[in-house]
Amino acid sequence: LKAGLHYLERKVNFQKEGQISFLKANVGSVLEQLDTLLDLKVNFESDTADTRASIENLESAITKCKAEADQLFEDVLQRKDKADSTRNALNVLHRFRFLLYLPVTIERNMAEGNYDVIINDYARAKSLFGDTQVPLFEQFRKEVERRIEDLRRVLWQQLRRLPAPLDHHKKIIRNLQHLESSGDPAWESLTCRQSYLLSLLDQTKESHLARELADRDHGSGGAPPGGEESGNAAGGGGGTTPAAKYNQIMASSLGEYQNQAPVRVVLVEAVCDVLCDQYPHLWRLSQAYFSGELLPPDTTLDPARQPHCKALLLEVISVFSHSIRGSVLGQCLLPTDSNPDYQQLLAQYYRVWPDISVAVITPWMPQIIRQVRACYSTLLTLDLPNDALDIVANLLLDLRVQCLQWLFQQTVEHVKGLHWKENWNLEEPEKPSTPGYTQLPSHFESVVLEAGQLVKEVVLVTGEKETNVLELPDVRRDLATLIHNVVVAFAQCLEHLCLSDPDYLPDPSGGGGGELTSAAAALASGYQNPHGGSDGEGPPGVEKQVLITLSNCAYMRQTVLKRITDALVKIGYPEKEVRQGITQAASSYEVLQERLLRAYLEERSDPVIGMIERSMYLGGFDWGKVYHPPTDARSYVKEILLNITHVQAEVVSVWSGEVSQLVGCVVEGVGEEVCRLLSCVNTWSDHGYTQAVIDVEALLMALQPYMTPAARAPFEESLELLPKLTSEQAKQKTAALSRFRVRMRLVMECFATDADAGATADSTA
Q: What is the tens place of the pLDDT at every residue in 481-509?
């Protein structure tokens, strides 16, 4: 280090010695340069003093010349400056005419609705002059922004204005996004469209409700002109059935349909049309929103809005469902709930509707179901979530179930009134064993099958994604009950023709049955056949009416109920429930048959039995004062036989298969009365008891075909009361019976022939 230090010191000293040596070697040249600089300074100072005066003179001359020139060319120069400024302004205007004319262009295109042109021009202006610092351009840019803000306001107003096509709204949404409008125009459009649809449904409901209340104030009760009358008629045999009423509705013209339709049916059609027209737009808009189609670029979807949108969509479907439920079903099939929100719902959609006759609304239920089903089919094409579809599917299911119940209930009411259609004209039996019948059972059969076919077409047929009502245990159970009620209703109709208490079918052993109604007597006395009898004659007597009704009852049991069962099963009704309902209802006909049988026997047996005592003792006859040997049966015996032939002929004319039973019962009553009268005789003459034996055996011989063990017993008891005949008296008896057989041959052959025919019919049946 010390050696290096000494080296550096030597180098520095050497350099100092080199500068001094340089000056020493060139000192002459340096002095010459200094002398030259001094001479230059002296010469410059002398020259400056000489030229200063001339320069000042030149400056004053130039200034004076300029002033004179300005004075001479001032106007020309001013015009030149103005021309230059004008030229420069025109150049600027031509170069930047797009920005300068843009406010006026925006106003003109707004008036013409050319929003796309405005948006394109605005985007171009922003790209060209967005960062300008030129005051003029800044002023025009602000004016353009003011016009664009007006355009945004107009577009928002159009977005909220409904109804409008969905494509138009989508275009507005994109325009607002291109204009960088604040907010979410797509979501705003979605909520506005949902609110509009709700208000439209509510307005539709309120307008039809107000119309029904106004009609009610005028006395029509919410039904169309003649609606109540037609509804009442549908409940009785004098009017059309609900199924026939529906067929008339479908066959009517548009004008007739609109005049006949109840307000609530029109409401259902209106809300279905509203939903089918507007809901697809709402659903497609929501799908476009959540698919990102309507979102600005580089924008993410808010996940919280998806459940909110679902709630909006479900709310519309729920309002639609409640509007129909409240007007058509009322509070039927609704659960009981004390929740305040639920009670408010009932007050808003259900309790506001006044009561309406089921008979008025029932014929329109198939049409209502068709409308809702068509609306449901439209919703199915949209691929909606199951929550929304389930609401309409449940509504449709409840409408179908209620339609099933109401149609059968109204059919029951109609069937109960079919007795007014009875014309008492007997049809030709298909077989000798078949009971005679009128058109009434066949008319009942057609009514049931007509209702069954309508229920099958409307209720039992299952559309796409609909619940099969026959898979519901409650519906199957109700179906069996409804079929049972319809069949029992016809038994009540038959009973109403002849017997009292038509609404009650007591046990046959309970007594109190068999009384003829005053209606039957009125029919017998002043009957006018609404259909016109084939022979143009009046109705038969009350007794024959009972017999015909009895035969109709048997015909129902043997033939009609089987045909109805087979027909309903064939068109798709569950066999188990159909057979269960009809089998249980058949017991009503058994009960009715017993009551009618007793009623007929009372009406026919009592006159026959009542005349026996009077005819037996006619002319003061005394069994103890018979002084001549008998030669024939007495007249009262022949009168008994003739009266029985009347009963026999009446029964044969209606139902030959029932001759043995009915005539046998009459014969039994005759035997009991004869036995009673003979047991009351205190004194017998010889010829008197011989005559009594002849009379009893004549009855036994003539009525042999109808002598059941019960009928034979009183006659044999009568013979046991009488003394044994002597041989002479036996001969007299034999001769008298021979003579009786000859004289009453036609009557006895009549009994034998009809009894054989009846026995054959009974065995065949």
A: 999 999 999 999 988 887 754 444 433 33
